[in-house]
Predict the structure.
Amino acid sequence: MHQRKSKKILIYFFLLFLVGSINNININNLKFQSIKNINVTGLENEDNSIISKKIKNLKLDNIYLINKKDLNTLIESNNLVEKYFIFKKYPSSLNINIDKTSFLARISKNGKIYDLGSNGKLIENKYSNNQLPFVFGNPEIIEFFNIKKIIDESQISFEEIESLYFFLSKRWDLELRNNIIIRLPNDNIKESLKLASEFLHNNEFKDIKIIDARIKNQIILND
């Protein structure tokens, strides 16, 4: 009985060795096609071409064994990218579709003017026109997005704004395209904007120049 079990075990080992050897031979002889086509879309032609060339420089061996980390890092290093989708087209093509970030405002940093994208990145000011609102002061990016979110939830359209002024006290002033200035408090900004908009869209107060909403539950008008 013991001898039979030993023979069976030896047979199993032999079969495993044989199958493994065959598989290894097949794998060693298997040659994958290298990536021949890299198609990038979504940005301007020049920017698409730059990303495509950088991907080629990664020297990706084949479509089956792509280093996703390196590929993602390269694509995300372009500040124009909001999000992207990578599609493998077998056997040797890679298609990358990019959603371009939206330009929200212009801002000065270290003596240079940048566009601020909806992806939170600063982009060299050569892509957008100068109709974007300008941010004065030195806010953190998150502070800009906080005030924009409040504005977007108010009765005032962000497109109505000419400039945003950020102060060291962490509060904002808004200058509208009709030259009216809204002075906002540090807290309760949403409620203050709601009060301000009631005067802003009232024809009886069409000559006002400043809406001061810094005091809670009060509005001071200056013409």
Q: What stands out?
A: The longest helix spans residues 2-29. Residues 37-100 form one domain.
